[in-house]
Amino acid sequence: MEKENVSLARRKSGGGAVYQDLGNLTFCFITPHFNDVDFKKNNTEILIKSLKNLGINSEFSGRNDLLVNGKKVRQN
Questions:
Q1: How many independent structural domains does the chain possess?
Q2: What dihedral do alpha carbons 19, 40, 67, 7 form, nearest 10°?
Q3: Tell me, what DSSP letter sits at residue 38?
Q4: What whole-number distance in Å separates Cα of residue 58 and Cα of residue 50?
Q5: Do residues 40 and 60 make contact, with C-beta atoms less than 8 angstroms apart?
Q6: How large is the average pLDDT for residues 44-66?
Q7: Residue 25 and residue 34: Cα distance in Å, rounded?
Q8: Is the model's pLDDT at 76 over the cut of 60?
């Protein structure tokens, strides 16, 4: 990473490694108290409503998965 001048960022929630390339869209929700967050209610429902406003139907599935046309949309 140092040789290629690649930045490293860590999120408090943990999770797997994600490589961000050109053309990706990455976002986060900033909340005052991480332990009090209901991810499905606060985050996923906001995303589903936002996508619906853009004419994109999506659904919540699994532990924290958002699906569009049966394919997983990554939430980090």
A1: 1
A2: -10
A3: -
A4: 10
A5: yes
A6: 87
A7: 23
A8: no
pLDDT at 75 over 60: no
User: What angle (nearest 5°) sits at the alpha carbon of residue 57, between those of residues 19 and 30?
Assistant: 50
**Residue 9: other Cβ atoms inside 10 A:** 7
Residue 49 burial by Cβ neighbours in a 10 Å radius (0-12, 13-18, 19+) = exposed
R_g (Cα) of the chain, nearest Å: 15
Interatomic CA distance for residues 20 and 7, integer angstroms: 10
- Host domain of residue 10: 1-76
Quote the CA–CA distance of 64 and 74 in Å, as a whole number.
9
Structure-token match 């909340």, residue found:
31
H or E stretch at 68: strand 65-68
